[in-house]
């Protein structure tokens, strides 16, 4: 079936003269820096893009063959030699009308003025396997209707999708992919995940342009791209709760995003900004029946429905400058702040898997929409330098992400209250304490990237990339500090790409 699809796409490119067929084949190798092992992550080894235009209509599509690793022991129970999956990334029809265009199908969208990491670019789910790549490569296509309408200095974008567009998490057979950093602490089962009653999503984006200045206002309503803890039920057999059965539920909150964007062009400077105001609420309905053996676990003794409501903002401010010697500089400032959080008080339920006792529900909260940087940090500065030389045949780049996040570090610090059980006036490891956030402006984690792209010929590009992730000993293992969890992901990558 895969072969038939590819043959059809290739033949169409030759049959219709208005057709364009392009793509690339990529041969990639990645190695962990810390331990020297091969990094076996999926990657797109072949991409095909097809465009056919007839009168006022065009058909756009993109296919990708993704290498999906097979270990030697996999052949003991699966003798299929296939080690790739076919991904239809885009397939949509465009109708060009006098005042704009209308599109329908599977599409990758782009909202916001910031080049990357915009908090307003929420129309597509993210592919976490490509989280460290840029642009559209880390997005998943959305089955949607979209339009662009132009009138004088105004442009209006509209989108509607009947489906909930979730992110692709690094999960294999119900477990976190050991090759990937621990960006998620748990993997819920299908039974533990609450189905969304109204999955449709929609939004609009109004942009006004005057001279060298643009301003945009946007609104988007949808469900979160990643799951969050939603509630707990504790069942027993009749009045007996000696052997309780605990049901944990995860769901996707409803989120509304209000956005403001600005763009200013001034000589060699370009200044961009996107700010998003997020209103999110858990409206999921939790079942009152046990998911396992409801005849035995027929009595609901304790229930907790988080009823979370949160308001938060995300800001990305970008500055670009182009020098006269083919050197480009880009900097971004990312900022996240929780404005308000309310939820029901967490009950005293012991032995809940993956959830500590006496936990504050706010500590379990993770933004389900916003900038991809929000997966890694709450406050950060990004620097990028790009240098072209040899008549644009060679590109050298240096990127660094500096994390300024302040969070509880999971260990006692001077000035924090502790239970002096040993009556010695100093904190001992067996004594409890109140872990606080210390608002100090300091660099905690770093992501440093150095790479080069060299055009060996018109079609062949050689890419070499070194990424080093540095954590901070200030955070203990209990703090789950993201940069500490990612240190083992530091890698060296080598690619040869053939474009056609």
Task: Provide structural commentary.
- The structure is a single chain.
- This protein is mainly β and 500 residues long.
- The chain has one domain (2-499): Beta Barrel (Porin).
- 4% of the residues lie in helices and 48% in strands.
- The chain is built from two helices and 23 strands.
- It has helices spanning 2-15, 482-486, and strands at residues 19-32, 43-54, 57-67, 84-97, 100-107, 142-151, 154-161, 171-172, 175-176, 201-210, 213-223, 228-237, 240-251, 254-266, 269-281, 299-305, 309-322, 327-342, 379-389, 394-403, 445-455, 460-470, 491-499.
- It has an 18-stranded antiparallel barrel.
- Strand 14 and strand 15 form a beta hairpin.
- It is globular and about 75 Å long.
- The model has no long low-confidence stretch (mean pLDDT 87).
């Amino acid at each position: 079936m895969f072969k038939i699809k590819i043959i059809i796409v290739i033949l169409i490119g030759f049959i219709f003269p208005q057709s364009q067929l392009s793509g690339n084949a990529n041969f990639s190798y990645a190695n962990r820096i810390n331990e020297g092992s091969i990094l076996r992550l999926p990657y797109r080894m072949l991409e095909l893009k097809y465009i056919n235009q007839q009168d006022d209509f065009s058909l756009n599509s993109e296919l990708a063959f993704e290498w999906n690793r097979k270990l030697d022991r996999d052949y003991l129970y699966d003798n299929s030699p296939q080690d790739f999956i076919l991904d239809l990334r885009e397939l949509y029809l465009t109708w060009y009308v006098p005042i704009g265009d209308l599109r329908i199908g599977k599409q990758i969208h782009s909202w916001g003025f910031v080049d990357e990491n915009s908090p307003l670019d929420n129309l597509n789910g993210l592919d976490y396997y490509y989280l460290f790549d840029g642009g559209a490569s880390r997005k998943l296509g959305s089955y949607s209707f979209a339009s662009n309408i132009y009138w004088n200095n105004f442009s209006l974008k509209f989108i509607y999708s009947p489906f909930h567009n979730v992110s692709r998490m690094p999960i294999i057979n119900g477990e976190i992919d050991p090759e990937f950093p621990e960006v998620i602490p748990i993997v819920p089962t299908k039974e533990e995940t609450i189905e969304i009653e109204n999955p449709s999503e929609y939004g609009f984006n109004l942009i006004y342009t005057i001279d060298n200045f643009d301003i945009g206002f946007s609104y988007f309503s949808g469900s979160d791209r990643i799951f969050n803890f939603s509630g707990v039920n504790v069942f027993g057999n009749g009045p007996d709760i000696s052997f309780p059965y605990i049901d944990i539920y995860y769901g996707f909150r409803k989120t509304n995003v209000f956005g403001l964007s600005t763009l200013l062009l001034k000589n060699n400077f370009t200044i961009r900004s996107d700010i998003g105001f997020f209103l999110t609420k858990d409206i999921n309905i939790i079942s009152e029946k046990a998911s396992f053996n409801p005849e035995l676990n027929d009595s609901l003794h304790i229930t907790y429905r988080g009823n979370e409501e949160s308001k938060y903002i995300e800001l990305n401010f970008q500055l670009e400058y182009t020098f006269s010697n083919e050197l480009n500089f880009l900097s971004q400032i990312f900022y996240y702040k929780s404005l308000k959080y309310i939820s029901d008080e967490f009950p005293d339920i012991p032995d809940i898997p993956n959830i500590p006792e006496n936990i504050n529900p706010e500590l379990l909260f993770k933004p389900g929409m916003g900038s991809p940087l929000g997966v890694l940090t709450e406050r950060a500065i990004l620097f990028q330098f790009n240098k072209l030389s040899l008549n644009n045949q060679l590109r050298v780049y240096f990127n660094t992400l500096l994390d300024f996040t302040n969070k509880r570090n999971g260990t006692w610090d001077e000035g924090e209250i502790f239970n002096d059980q040993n009556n010695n006036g100093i904190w001992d490891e067996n004594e409890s304490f109140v872990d606080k956030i210390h608002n100090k402006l300091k660099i905690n984690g770093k992501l440093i990237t150095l790479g080069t792209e060299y055009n060996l010929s018109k079609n062949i590009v050689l890419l070499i990339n070194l990424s080093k992730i540095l954590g901070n000993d200030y955070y203990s293992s209990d703090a789950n500090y993201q940069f500490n969890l990612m240190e083992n992901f530091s890698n060296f990558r080598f690619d040869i790409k053939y474009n056609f």
